[in-house]
TrEMBL record:
InterPro entries: LysR-type_TF_proteobact-type, LysR_HTH_N, LysR_subst-bd, WH-like_DNA-bd_sf, WH_DNA-bd_sf. Residues 7-64 form the HTH lysR-type domain. PANTHER family: HTH-TYPE TRANSCRIPTIONAL ACTIVATOR TTDR-RELATED (PTHR30537:SF5), HTH-TYPE TRANSCRIPTIONAL REGULATOR (PTHR30537). One of its GO terms (biological process) is DNA-templated transcription. SUPFAM superfamilies: Periplasmic binding protein-like II, Winged helix' DNA-binding domain. This is LysR family transcriptional regulator. It comes from the Bacteria. GO terms for molecular function: DNA-binding transcription factor activity; sequence-specific DNA binding. The keyword DNA damage does not apply. Keywords: DNA-binding, Transcription, Transcription regulation. Belongs to the LysR transcriptional regulatory family.
Amino acid sequence: MEQNLPFDVDALLIFGKVVENRSLSKAAALLGMPKSTVSRKLTRLESDLGIKLMRKNTHQLTVTDLGEQVYAHAANILTEANGVRALVEGSRQEPQGELRVAIPVFVGIDYASRVGAAFLQHYPNSQLDIRLVDRVVDPVRDGFDVVFSTGPLQDSTLIARKVFDLELFLCASPDFLAGLPEPVRDPAQLNTLPFIDFGFGGPRKLMVTGKAGLRELTPPVRARANNFQVCKQYIMQGLGVGAMPTQIICTNELREGTLVPVLPEWRLESLDVHMIYPFELSFSTLISAFYETACEIIVENTARQ
């Protein structure tokens, strides 16, 4: 392992705190050190790296484009450092206290309940408050410790850890497919068929990948719901083609044949499901324990297929 880094790691973490607060004074107060020390550390860091990280004047502080990229790495380093801290503390002390968690309804009641039950069984000194939500939730604004979400992270004061990839596949009921004038063999045919759309995750395009490359589809949406269980019922009732996940919803239906894959040689883009929590809680042993449990349950669900 390389020991002689060309810069001071502590200075890199100080730089990260300055960027988050857009203020030397605020960062110094939060770090419990004089403003002059923060300024000196940053000047030395810029000298060591040979680049300009920030531009300062009497009115504002701005970060250079390269500085923003350096900050992204600094945030990752601090997250890993806090992860080490949580690991050490977790080995000394059993997680305890109350955890408030928001899980989108699309993830499913079965998954949420299994994660909750396993967590409470593993950690008898913990309390858990899970809320199934059908809207975008901000952990700080809405008073949650942990939020499950898809899509890119918009707020640099939050931490996102991927729990699982939600693998999706196109499917329909056997009766729906039997009623079509011809078998579905090409993705372009979906542009004329009614589509059951899951209504969450923000605007998106339906993209499929196969041996012939990447194709963008624009099927007419017949129905939309922000819950996979609702979408599954629509599809099973023969109302159209839809995209469903394998890990948490459709295992039994595929086995029984009440849902059948459509264009199985074409792969849909997966949904990354992250666990998001405030930056200041990144050292929480309770949150780390819940994350490990959430990952454990999705592995069990995949194994049940």
